[in-house]
Write the structure tokens for this entry.
Amino acid sequence: MGRITARRRITRVTLGEPARQRDDVLAVEEPLEIRVGGSALTITMRTPGHDFELAAGFLVSEGVIATGEHLAAIRYCAGATTDGENSFNVLDVTLAPGVAAPDPSLERNFYMTSSCGLCGKASIDAVRTLSAHHVAHDDVRVDAALLTGFPDRLRAGQDVFDKTGGLHAAALFDGVTGELLVLREDVGRHNAVDKVVGWAATERRLPLTGTVLMVSGRASFELTQKASMAGIPVLAAVSAPSSLAVELAAEIGLTVVGFLRGSSMVVYSGVERIVVPDPVPVTSDEAVVV
């Protein structure tokens, strides 16, 4: 936990009261340079931890690999700093024999912030990566009552968020049984998802048919794309999706659920996968276009 959180002396100011100083816990944010075959591919700002999963998930999201079998090895680079020490902020991925190296066009100005999973992309067309796993063919049906329990279970698993209040989270659930398969936290929402996908890759579980990806924030375009690349048929979020996320989801046959809070949700695409027993008719003014 040493590199996941950091302590800092802070001053709390409340109007009408004396200022008070105390130690506070912050979520650590550090750069991670990802190399493939010794060649630098990208730098992302992330919370240290599960770095190999992050790298593997990133490569799945970018279409460099489609399964865990496409990976030969991942290692931290020794002597990554000028003084020769290992910072554990640079790692190198070795692809399996026969797997093509990343296209040079994937380089993202060699930097990504923790808040953006698509920085440096030339155009929207460039990120519509063709997935090796077609979610439109996934016939999983998820009980709406089961789905409503996922946000609380996601929140209950956010150990570092409890200490810092500053991390996103992503979790993968079995869409039929509701089993929590994996949960990851990070300062970047796209990093949290990449860590989940990377876990699946290293566990040889891709494609993730019949699963639900639950995220703690909004459902953005890049998260929809990442779900598609991993073969995840359902993306659920506690907040709103973007218009582009819904457009892509409808195009590829992926279910997007937003505002999943309490006993309600809004289904923006792929409503046929959500099982609602005894649906209550709504008026035309209340109807949601999906």
